[in-house]
Amino acid sequence: xxxxxxxxxxxxxxxxxxxxxxxxxxxxxxxxxxxxxxxxxxxxxxxxxxxxxxxxxxxxxxxxxxxxxxxxxxxxxxxxxxxxxxxxxxxxxxxxxxxxxxxxxxxxxxxxxxxxxxxxxxxxxxxxxxxxxxxxxxxxxxxxxxxxxxxxxxxxxxxxxxxxxxxxxxxxxxxxxxxxxxxxxxxxxxxxxxxxxxxxxxxxxxxxxxxxxxxxxxxxxxxxxxxxxxxxxxxxxxxxxxxxxxxxxxxxxxxxxxxxxxxxxxxxxxxxxxxxxxxxxxxxxxxxxxxxxxxxxxxxxxxxxxxxxxxxxxxxxxxxxxxxxxxxxxxxxxxxxxxxxxxxxxxxxxxxxxxxxxxxxxxxxxxxxxxxxxxxxxxxxxxxxxxxxxxxxxxxxxxxxxxxxxxxxxxxxxxxxxxxxxxxxxxxxxxxxxxxxxxxxxxxxxxxxxxxxxxxxxxxxxxxxxxxxxxxxxxxxxxxxxxxxxxxxxxxxxxxxxxxxxxxxxxxx
Length: 509
Known about the structure:
single chain; globular; 20 helices; 509 residues; mainly alpha; 2 domains
């Protein structure tokens, strides 16, 4: 295959699978955002903050018990497929399932037995002590669900993954949540809805992974000799990253909760959820491109890795920029949908975190590239230093300026990590960040920003949900309208040709 044909196939493959994620994410935003507002209004900042604190405990336990199994699946399944080591894939999955399944069930039993003492150890959870055993079921469910997701990612079986972890899970969660909250079940009802959605998604993904395994040819088990040590080494590094996440990932909410109570934690949770919305586009493409990075590394194909990096960075930033600008311009009325307290206290923090998200998206999948290209140890030590930056910032700034201090600390860690990772990628892999295709960002970005300012001025700070939705839609129309007038990159044309062929219109010439 020629280099041009190979680049075209890469764009079509990445874009085609990412389109499935895009549809799933559109569904997530369309259903998840109204659900988020509804839950916040029914539960209030206090109960939402309690849920966030309990969710933090569950997240810590899941992080401690993951043992790096799930990331190892994404790293090694594509490599074993490339080398036709199919028996290794089954062995890897079975070992991983046994480890996380048994540890999750054991943790569930321990948490249920110790739940009566939680209120004494942590007074903030006293009113929610009745729901702690219910929340504990999310430990084994979360562990197994994550392993199934990453197994499907390794096979690049994106449809099963998106339908399970996005469409079906959110549909069940929203349906059960609205039903139980409307009947007055409160926080226990919402937790039950989260559990129901997770169980449904887990069953669906399990079916998809079993079908994929059964389609593989059977090979002699000797082809897997000696790979266990390699799996364990990689998993141990990823587990180290997970432990870092456990130590720092929930530090902001715990510190804010300790100093200011559960209410501000609920506001911080909403701000972080809004700030994460643009990164959905990065996660969407990472789910597809990570196995492709691993396969390129197995072939020692640096040209392919460079193309994948620039292509992903370009598509991610262009997909997210109108949403980033929308969050900056309409932060106050958007937070006002959740309640007056959210708008009054969370606006500055949202601005800061959206700025950090912009830097993160503009740097593309650099951390994922390092992990999939044999530089996972370098990325681990970078994560250690980033955790130090974050922790120092939180300890110093949260007592002084509360939520804003937490936002500044998180943003500083994000900017530092991305900048350092780009340096490592250039020095160790020869990957450069810049590509001429990025020049196509300028004119659409300027037009979108000007259009957004005009809408904001016209709205004069008063915007309901329908006006906000219309503003976001207009900003996307402006961005992509100007992009089309400027002209498309060859990779974009290949993706459009793929869609035209699948829709039966034939490829454009």
